[in-house]
Design a protein that fits this description.
The structure is a homodimer of 335-residue chains. Chain A has 335 residues and is α/β, with parallel strands linked by helices. Chain A is built from ten helices and 14 strands. In chain A, the strands form two sheets. In chain A, strands 1, 2, 3, 4, 5, 6, 8, 9, 10, 11, 13 and 14 form a twelve-stranded mixed sheet that branches. In chain A, strands 7-12 form a two-stranded parallel ribbon.
Chain lengths: 335, 335
């Protein structure tokens, strides 16, 4: 470990998760977690005039439901940390504007849910605010045309490609006690393994996930089986296999209790989503359905949520740059 | 004030500014602050192959010099908060990757320096890290082609337009005592006054600056003259005048001790920059030259740094959306 300051952040005051919500589209409804979403938009426009506005609508809806479930109003929230994949994070700007909450934009590509949750937890734990929100989203249609091709072009994608989820997740963190809290966090470093194929994000992100998880386990002197589950998001099928390989090299076997958000959200074969799901909204909505629901029900007591992001833009991809990646980790505890 | 939780964040443990650096190009060198920049790149490519890489080079250089001046190495920094105007913040990703420091991406458009400095201060003040860095940049050439036209098109800009600075600023915040510290911060809300002219960012951002400054003064029960200077960045000529107007309506007169980073960085008339400078690198480099130098020299004892950001993308501008804006404020004290 080269950076001696790259330490686990322990939240001593227990920032609690007091509310959360996931919003998706019909595609997510048809997936294995479909029944756990709080709200499903009827069609991908979500009643808006363009895909970007539709994505903002997802965030608006998710934050609204999360606030309601937490028993808080927008006036109780000291800051909202939000970001998304759209250029200049406009999905978040327009998504949460109406709530009139101080807004701190964050960017971590598909790792944004973990990053915003870490920021919200730190601001509550540090006593800077009493409550904070963490929100993110992605939208298949806005992402496709921004990063790849207009939908009308009907571009074919290779099997290593992942489908950007049309979904949003919102979490309310507070100093008001609840059953679930954020025990610790670990901010990732940017990792570049020389992958430059924008249709194989799983391969680009797996080294970042391995780097963060291995260093976290080493520093906490814990083993994978000390946790009920270790979630990554979103490595998909290709990235998950690479993660196992990279960890096995360091004699760490994740295979028995690892799950990937990109593999949980869709039925990969039936729904023909290539290597799995992706997008900020993927790990965010899996966190706000499967993960937090199972923690709330007591089925999980201690999990790691390690969201991964591929830090590319259409411009850097066209310029032939590699795809550096990052993975931020959050440790969640059920009391 | 609708949001009762939108409070001043008081940093009780005095996060200190132990190092800072500004990097610019020949254009910034020719401006009134030219002599205060730590490093000037010979030409706008900064020796790189494209404008985006050049922008990353600015960040890399600024962070390197700031670290050196602070007496710290990359291994001493627990987290770097960085962001920029480029799609998916790639200027920061590629700019700071080599330093091997945990990376938290932030996005606040041209307000990013204030936002990243607030985050760095909060993480030091909360005891989550011993030292943190805040970095941002902008580049005239990468911004022009991304937001407006390719340079080769030689597009004419109206006099209300501002010139994106080719500059970067980096600040090292630490719990190790120094002469300057961050006393408090105030996170802004997104403000939309219905401005949709992407060539008049000053007008779009002035209401956000007014909103943040007026609410800060009200909550702290202070008056403009309680501070040696109140800096905004980057409202330019048009936005600064609007700011005065909006504040005078609330019986607050900023005219005698307000300065705008967009008006400080260039000689507006001689350098033909329209309404002034802009871009994340503008307020960042003015902070890391004029403001922090004068604080260090003891010429200023107490200043407010209120950086402003226009939260648009080329897509939302083309879709006819308004330009919502935000202003984040930092209070800096010379011991």
């Amino acid at each position: 470990m080269k950076n001696k300051e790259n330490k686990i952040i322990n939240f001593n005051n227990k920032p609690y998760i007091i509310g959360y919500a996931a919003v998706g589209s019909e595609y997510e409804k048809q997936g294995p977690l479909g029944g756990e979403f709080d709200y499903i938009v009827n069609d991908p426009t979500a009643g808006e005039e363009c895909w970007e506005q539709a994505e903002s609508r997802l965030q608006k809806t998710a934050l609204g439901i999360a606030l309601k479930k937490s028993g808080k109003s927008n006036e109780d929230i000291g800051v909202v940390f939000a970001g998304d994949l759209l250029n200049q994070c406009v999905g978040s700007t327009f998504g949460i504007m109406e709530y009139n909450i101080p807004f701190a934009g964050v960017y971590g590509a598909c790792s944004t849910m973990a990053l915003s949750l870490i920021m919200a937890s730190a601001f509550v734990d540090g006593g800077f605010v009493n409550s904070a929100a963490a929100v993110t989203s992605s939208h298949f249609c806005s992402a496709e045309r921004q990063f790849r091709f207009p939908l009308e072009y009907a571009g074919q994608r290779p099997p290593t490609a992942q489908r950007t989820a049309c979904a949003s997740g919102a979490v309310i963190v507070s100093n008001k006690p609840s059953e679930i809290y954020v025990k610790s966090a670990f901010l990732g470093k940017t990792v570049d393994y020389g992958i430059a194929d924008a249709n194989n994000m799983g391969a680009a992100m797996a080294p970042a996930a391995a780097d963060t998880i291995l260093r976290f386990l080493k520093e906490t002197e814990s083993a994978p089986l000390d946790y009920d589950k270790i979630f990554t998001g979103d490595l998909g099928q290709v990235g998950s296999e690479l993660l196992y390989e990279l960890c096995l090299k360091e004699k760490v076997d994740l295979r028995s209790n690892h799950l990937d958000c990109g593999l949980l959200i869709y039925d990969r074969v039936k729904q023909k989503v290539g290597a799995g799901g992706s997008g900020c909204g993927c790990s965010a909505s899996v966190l706000c359905t499967h993960i937090l629901n199972k923690l709330k029900a007591g089925e999980y007591k201690k999990v790691l949520f390690c969201a991964t992001g591929a830090l590319l833009s259409a411009t850097t991809a066209q310029q032939g740059e590699n795809i550096p990646s990052i993975a931020h980790l959050v440790e969640l505890i059920r009391i």
